[in-house]
Amino acid sequence: MAVPSRSGQQLESGIECGSLFDALPDAVLVISDAGVITQVNAAAELLFGYDRQQLMGQDHCIILAEGYRSGFEQLFASLRHSQESGVPAPTPFESYGLRSDGTEFPGEVACSLLHTDHGTSLVASVRATFHRQEADAGLREAMSLLSATLESTADGILVVSSDGKIAGLNDQFTTMWGIPQELLETHDDAALMGYVLGQLAEPESFLEKVQELYADPTAESHDVLDFLDGRTFERYSRPQKVDDTVVGRVWSFRDVTPRRRAQEQAKQALAELAEQAAQLKAMAFQDPLTGLANRKLFHDQLTEALRGDRSAAVDVLLLDLDDFKEVNDILGHHAGDQMLVEVARRLRACVRPNDTVARLGGDEFVVLLTGSDDAETVAERIVESLNVPVWIEGSMLRPSLSLGLASMNEDAVAASELLRRADVAMYAAKAAGKNRFMRFQPEMMTALVQRTDMEAGLRLAVDDGEITVNFQPIVSPRLGEVTQFEALARWDRGGERVPPSQFIPTAERSGLISTIGMHMMRESFIQLRPWLAGDLERSLAVNVSGVQLREPDFADAVLCLAESCRMDPRQLVLEVTESVFLDPDAHVIRQLGSLRNAGVRVALDDFGTGYSSLGRLQDLPVDAVKIDKSFVSMVRTGAEKLPILSSMINMAHSLGLRVTAEGVETAEQAAYLTDLECDSLQGYLFSHPEPESGLELAILRSADAVDALEGLRLKR
Ligand code: C2E
Ligand code: CA
Ligand code: CA
């Protein structure tokens, strides 16, 4: 063995190798490649507490504390490798020595290889490091504090050295990432990275970030990682420095899933709140039944339109359903609502998408057209499309409306004024017979003033004797003579005749109709008494308004008056329109009942124009019907087939009711109706309504016309 002996070889300095070996302050041992101690120096004897002879030939493990005995071969191999490749050897390193008395001590071991003719041995120099223990204790305390902190934090922490190796991690890190213990033990960093990436929603961007950070070791960064399983981590990364030198990177991860969820829930709740607010806002501008704009929105839009471009046309079409109250009364509010919805639908279909259609309330609607070049065509289209029949709850209804059109012309008009003009025009359309549209004309304003004026005039009319009676004959084709007269009111106002279609509605609205009605009855009882007295079969028909029937003592008053005028109640016919039967006040029906008990007959006027069906006729307490002139006017040549007329007459007859046809103007109409066995005829063909003084002549003329009718029928 080429190990220096205690005596012999001398160094150039004259110092003998053996004594130098023994004089070395560190313990030095030579160990063969088989791990056997072959040489030790005096310091080694002292350090380990053995004699030289006791150590030599022993396995090196004898001087190593338990737990430090493995790894010799690996150490040997890596020293060899380092010598061959120039890579620094893993030395010196810390280890624990074992003395002969069994005590252990910490030491630092430095190793090198020694080549001799007999082979290669390992030379180990060992220095006890008791002196470091104190410093170590401080370090250990700091370390334990650090690791306790690391382990107690909720954050997952990973420390990676500059060469990409995992230098440390806490339990929280492995738990959060769900890293299996086996995987950790492999120390396979690439596999670990693969495991981490596999859980992320966007692994590429994380990888990119990691690479970016490694390219810039001093960078600090922070972001959020989304997991495939829905979790969210916050990530911090900062360099790990030792004395200003970056030696690695610390990654810390915090599970912010609950916080994220809470944030998302709050966001969702806020969005829902915003949506509700939007709905509420929409509701504030929307008619809930039809979904159309409401009055408020319409006003805003109109004001906006009037403020805009002066040259663009602005048209307001105000419309009101005709006799809508009847639909509600006969078929109920649910049907009424359905009708309003249908009307809204039709209105929308008549205009462009950006035109405003609003429901102002009840059965009143308004359309706002901006930039339309032909508002009248739109108005016409609305009237026509509304008048198409619709089935609602088993009944066929034919909605109709009156429409007023007002447009902005050169002079600037306020929104309220434009709407007022449309209202005036609509009123005019109603007065002109409904189911039509009228454009506002300045004269209509005068008409409005006139209506107010009319009411004032009407108040004085009865006392001033301006209201008089005219009588129109009603003939029986079977008997060929006049069997009845209808009393019709006439108002001569300062030499000008005001038509009943104008003053009767005013009288009804003001309540004056009761006075006028009683006046009419008294006058006609008196004037017609001589004619009526001639034959008990003769009768007098008087029109009665629903307003009158609502008076509590109406029936008594009529019977009282008849008695005082010596008029037989059986010769009196009261003409009422269907609307009186719709009055929810049962009192109205009761009044008619007591009058009928006294012998008075009731005729249903304008039959066929109301909303009720023929089928309802049997429920009404009436004795006769008067077919409205609009049906009679359908007869032109007399050759046409009009099943509606024949069904009306047959239906009434089957219920035991008498039938009168109104507005008979031509012989063809008279013949046609006679063929259908209509009981009585009334109209200009026989006579216009005449004052009492003209009745004698009217009777003669009417009789002539009936005779002529017989001739015509025989010829056919
Ligand atoms: P009405 O009860 O339907 O009366 C028949 C109307 O038709 C009368 O109009 C009559 O003049 C008209 N007429 C008669 N024959 C013909 C004809 O061949 N062709 C045409 N086109 N028309 C004809 P008038 O007198 O203008 O009365 C209008 C309405 O005013 C009446 O309709 C009735 O509803 C109401 N009225 C008239 N007088 C009174 C009254 O004293 N009390 C009440 N409550 N209403 C009345
Ligand atoms: Ca009548
Ligand atoms: Ca009538």
**Spans of 5+ residues with little confidence (pLDDT < 50)?**
1-6
Secondary-structure-derived class:
alpha+beta
Strand order of the largest sheet: 18-19-21-22-23-24-25-26
Largest sheet entry: 8 strands, mixed, barrel
Shape label: rod-shaped
Distance between the termini: 161 Å
The small molecules bound here are: ligand C2E, calcium ion
Total number of strands = 26
Share of helix, binned: 40-55%
Query: What is the number of helical segments per DSSP (H or I, 4+ residues)?
Result: 25
**Backbone CA Rg:** 58 Å
Indicate the mean pLDDT.
89
**Portion in beta strands:** 15-25%
Please describe what this structure looks like.
With 716 residues, this protein is an alpha+beta fold. Helix content is 43%, strand content 24%. It has an 8-stranded mixed β-barrel with strand order 18-19-21-22-23-24-25-26, surrounded by 5 helices. Strand 3 and strand 4 (104-116) form a beta hairpin. Helix 12 packs antiparallel against helix 13 (333-350) and helix 15 (415-431) crosses helix 16 (442-461). The chain is rod-shaped, with a radius of gyration of 58 Å. The termini are far apart. Residues 1-6 have low confidence and may be disordered. Bound molecules: ligand C2E and calcium ion (2 copies). One calcium ion binds at residues 605-606, 626, 628, 662.
Concise structural overview:
Helix content is 43%, strand content 24%.
Question: Layout of helices and strands, plus pairs?
Answer:
Layout: H1 17-23, E1 27-32, E2 37-40, H2 42-48, H3 52-55, H4 72-85, E3 93-98, E4 104-116, E5 119-128, H5 130-152, E6 156-161, E7 166-169, H6 171-177, H7 181-185, H8 189-197, H9 203-215, E8 221-226, E9 232-242, E10 245-255, H10 257-284, H11 295-307, E11 314-321, H12 324-331, H13 333-350, E12 356-361, E13 364-370, H14 375-386, E14 390-392, E15 395-397, E16 401-407, H15 415-431, E17 436-439, H16 442-461, E18 467-476, E19 481-493, E20 496-498, H17 500-510, H18 513-533, E21 539-543, H19 546-549, H20 554-564, E22 572-577, H21 586-597, E23 601-607, E24 624-627, H22 629-632, H23 643-654, E25 658-661, H24 667-675, E26 680-682, H25 695-715
Parallel strand pairs: 16-17, 19-21, 21-22, 22-23, 23-24, 24-25, 25-26
Antiparallel strand pairs: 1-2, 1-5, 3-4, 4-5, 6-7, 6-10, 8-9, 9-10, 11-13, 11-16, 12-13, 14-15, 18-19, 18-26, 19-20
Helix pairs in contact: 12-13, 13-14, 15-16, 16-17, 20-21, 24-25
One calcium ion (CA) is lined by residues 486, 543, 575, 605.
